[in-house]
Amino acid sequence: MKSNENYLDYVFKIKDGLVWTLNESGQAIVDMENKGFTNRFAQRFFKRPKTSHITLEGMGSFIFTCIDGQKSVYDIGALVHDEFGDEAEPLYGRLSVYMKQLEKLNFIERV
Predict the structure, then answer these.
(1) 50 close to 22: Cβ distance less than 8 angstroms
(2) CA-CA distances (angstroms) from residue 99 to 22, 25, 103?
(3) Which of 7, 26, 71, 84 is least surrounded by CB atoms within 10 angstroms?
(4) Is residue 102 classed as helix, strand or coil in its secondary structure?
(5) How far apart are CA 90 and CA 32, in angstroms?
(6) What is the mean pLDDT of each run of 10 residues along the chain (111 residues)?
(7) What is the pTM of this model?
(8) Quick one: 72 exposed, middle or buried, by C-beta within 10 A (0-12, 13-18, 19+)?
């Protein structure tokens, strides 16, 4: 990231090919394929699943469903504030960390 760029101006989209659903209570469930040598080893010898189902709780599910390739991080933050109010504070610090974590997990990518 260049020093003159603002993270809140970035726009993200859900990674192409990522499988996810919403359950009855509105929580996002992301299917994450376990790849790599250590995961294959664990699958074979410890009966670990090939796909993990990651359930995003409350605010995380709300944020994930707002990511559409159109809204900036700032826009998503405004929606989170409208939905959760003071419960979301410190809003943009938490939101930035959450978005970076989703990007690190390859759930989202910058447009």
Answers:
(1) no
(2) 19, 22, 6
(3) 26
(4) helix
(5) 29
(6) 82 96 94 85 83 92 97 97 93 95 95 93
(7) 0.85
(8) middle
* Tokens encoding 24: 């009855």
16 token code pair:
């192409």
Per-residue pLDDT, 50 = 85
Q: Whole-angstrom Cα distance, residue 110 to residue 73?
A: 11
Residue that the structure tokens 């990674």 belong to: 15
For residues 69 and 63, give the distance between their C-alpha atoms in angstroms, rounded to a whole number.
Answer: 13
Domain segments of the chain as ranges: 12-110
Q: By the 8 A CB rule, do 111 and 12 touch?
A: yes
Place of tokens 């995961």: 39
Whether residue 6 contacts residue 18, with contact meaning beta carbons closer than 8 Å, is answered with: no
Phi first, then psi, for residue 90 (nearest 5°) are: -75, 110
Tokens of 67: 């990511």
